[in-house]
# Entry
Amino acid sequence: MHSYSSQPRSWVAAFFLALASASLAPAQVSFPEVEPNDDKPTATPITGPVAGDTIIGTSDSPAAPDYFRLALPAATPALYRHRLALTVGASSHTVSLRGLTQSNGVIGAAEAEVQASTGLSSPPHMVQWYGFGRGEQLYCRVTGSSAQSPGYVLLMATEVITPIDIGDFMEGSIELTTAGQGHSTDTDLWVYDANFAAVDGFGNDDALGEPHTQSRLSRFFSPGVYYIAVTQRNFANHLASPVDDDLRSGAVLDFPDAAASSSNSADRILTFAVTDSRGTARIACAKESAYEVVWAKMRVASVPFGPCCMPDGTCREDLTDIECLNAGGAPGRIGSLCQDISCTGRCCHPATLTCTQLSFSQCAAQNGIFDGVGTPCIEDIADQEFVRTLAPPLVLQWNGGVAVEDVLDVGDYFPIVDVDVSLLLAHTWQGDIDAVLVSPLGTSVPLISRPGVPQHAFGFSADDFGDVGGGVDFTLDDEAPIGLRYDRGAVPTPGIASVTGRWTPDAGALSAFDGQLAQGLWRLRITVNAAGDIGALHRWKLAFRRGEAPCEDPCNGHPGDLNCDGVVNILDINAFVLALADGGAYLEAYPTCCLFLADLNGDFDINVLDINPFITLLAGP
# Structure
């Protein structure tokens, strides 16, 4: 609606010129407002708008709003994000999504604002909602700020959104919560079924009776596929808040099949946890833009289905754990797929006394001894930690982009099953830091890679990796909670000051060290990538899961005594070289000797990694 006045008409030409050139994509249809349309009952119908369409009109005062009733076309079932952005008249108009009030869980007839545009969103001056391809309807309103307001243009945009897949859970009581997950974001969540229909009663804004504004929902989940919507502040669909919600006054939408968030904030952590009868999964996530809703997909099963590795090395996904075991197979983790696992096991070769990972049939074909699906050539037997405390600490400052290095000497000799790295590193700008770990063999794994870059030119501005004052480490661990990488996506700008806890490496995988020998000099290389900030490395540690070769060693003799004369000396050198080069030729030349005496590092394989320990044996104590 607009009122008439004697205002200058110079804006008219500018308005239509802008209309012809300002759209983000070629307009397919322009829907004009039709007066009167100053409330919901008289709203202009907008039927079938698609991406690239526009809505045009004039509203020259807050008291003369324009209402529109959007009715989107049906589409292929999916999760869609829709936007209407002011591309003309943005500075003098506000667009909002309209809904209904709610009081104590009862939806009223009065109008409520669900979401309002702001210049801080991206794109600015827009509203955003989610639909599911079922032709949702909703109301939106445009208001001008004064009688001098020009006309406006709203541009429609649509994008398909792929939910996060968080895996499989067991039928029964399942709890979803954002509380206790390392953030204080005021959250709201709702559960949808496999068809993206909101499940009545399966929502929570504030946990009942708890002293915070975070969400906790505990319900019985039957088998099927579910979607979880998580956002900041109010999440609106057409349903009323359940009785066990501590906040039952949030605005709702007039119609089903649409959803929207009220929050125009960006960069907010929304990490949540899902707990079923088997345990808890922590889902790291964050909203990066205004009005964003994080959507997650989970499957609920009544019987634990997972991949089943059959004795011949093939894999099936149609057997329960019990059926798999009865068929002689080995069940995999529920929620994983055959493509996620390897159906091989430890195959011990008596002729060469070596071990390889093979399927049952492959092992049998090589006359090996198969120890079962999933059995490794190196078994983990114990945890061992090596700590280096620096006194004084190693200063970290701009060095022209050149890394500084600290060395930790691991004296014990064992194959690595797993390794985690912990740091206590002070620096006044986290986004300046690159950190790389280098093994004694020269394998490099990036641990920290300028968190927050390139989304922000200088990265996270928060201080420190680890709580230096409290002595609590920042730990890099391949097995950290799902997707919990200390960078944008899991963590909003400006980062977490004195960040602690367990995180996956930023740009590498520590599994690159698995199978290597721990003994030797480990190097931590740290680069400060900008001037103006300073810090220090106070401590770092390596926590190993150490292993041993499990295939039985039938050799009787002294390791390194390759010529079988009862002592280890220089006379064993030629025999050792032959064993290293050609095990078969060695057994022909020394038929009464044991090839496995050349396995001096205990990894149940004979290779170049046995050379250094052989030299050490020759050198003596």
The mean pLDDT is 86. The radius of gyration is 32 Å. The longest helix spans residues 10-21. Helices lie at 10-21, 321-326, 360-365, 573-581, 583-589, 611-619.
